[in-house]
C-alpha cells in the first residue's frame, strides 16, 4: 500500500469497448503496465431501453443493483412503498468516502445523486458547449485531477473528493441532444488516458497516489457477440484428466451460493494501475483477446469493483476478506 490513502479516478467508457483498435496507443500502454481483466454483468432484462441499460449497468458497477431494482419496481400499495429499501449512500457504505459522478446523462445523474454522488456534467466542469470533442483533453484531465487534490504535480493534504467517476459514451447529452457512443468518443477517451498517464509518471506525487481504473463496456449487446466474446473456457480446452472436477468459476458464485443471473459474454474490460501498488500482468493490449489469455484479474463480478477501489483509498476492509 501507499504511504497515505490513494485517490481514485475511474474512466468509464460506456459502450466503447467495441470501438477499441490498434491505434489507441495510450489505452494499450496503460494495459501493458496495469492489472487487467473482466467484470461480469447480469443478463439484460427483455425490452430494456438504452437509458435503462445505462443506469442498470452503472448500478451493478457501484454495487447498487438492489436499489436500482427497487427504484423501478411497481409498488401498488402504501405498505409496499413504506417497505421499499432506502438508498444507502457511498459515504455511508465506505467510511465517509466523498465521490463525484461526471456524466451528461440526466437519468444517470439523478440515480447517482440518490446514491450520494456529487453529480456534474462535463461541460459544467469546463465552461464550454458543443460536443465532447470541444472539451480540451488536457484541460479536462487537469480539472479531474484538481477535484482529487492534485495540482501542479503535487498532492494536497485535503481534496474535494476521494473518488471521481467519469462516464463517457452511450446516452450522453450535449446541448440537449442525446448522442450514441461512437468511435469519436473512443478517440477522446484514449487521449484522456494519455494525458493522465503523462501526468502520473512514476516518481511523481500523482503517480504514487492516483489509483486509475479504466472500464470499457460493450453497451447494448448483440446476439452475434455472445460466442466470440465469451469468457467461458471451451470444453475442448479442458484437457486435464481432472476435467470432470473442473470447478465452478468464482465469478458465478456469491458466498457459497451460485449467482442466479450471470452473463458469460461481453463483460466489461478493466485495467487498473497505480505505480508500485497494483500488479502487472502479461497483457500488452487493451483487448478482449489479450485480457482473456494474459490478464491477471481474470473475471470478477462487476458489483465487487467499487469495494476493491474503496480498499485502495483506505475506505474499506481488505477486499475479498
Structure, briefly:
The protein has helices at 25-33, 50-61, 65-72, 78-83, 90-93, 106-114, 122-125, 137-147, 183-199, 205-209, 225-228, 288-294, 305-312; strands spanning 7-14, 35-40, 99-102, 118-120, 150-151, 154-155, 163-169, 172-174, 177-179, 210-216, 253-254, 257-258, 268-273, 299-301. The model is unreliable at 74-84 (pLDDT under 50). 32% of the residues lie in helices and 18% in strands.
Task: Summarize the helices and strands and which ones pair or pack.
Blueprint: E1 7-14, H1 25-33, E2 35-40, H2 50-61, H3 65-72, H4 78-83, H5 90-93, E3 99-102, H6 106-114, E4 118-120, H7 122-125, H8 137-147, E5 150-151, E6 154-155, E7 163-169, E8 172-174, E9 177-179, H9 183-199, H10 205-209, E10 210-216, H11 225-228, E11 253-254, E12 257-258, E13 268-273, H12 288-294, E14 299-301, H13 305-312
Parallel strand pairs: 1-7, 1-10, 2-14, 3-4, 3-7
Antiparallel strand pairs: 2-13, 5-6, 8-9, 10-13, 11-12
Helix pairs in contact: 1-9, 2-3, 8-9
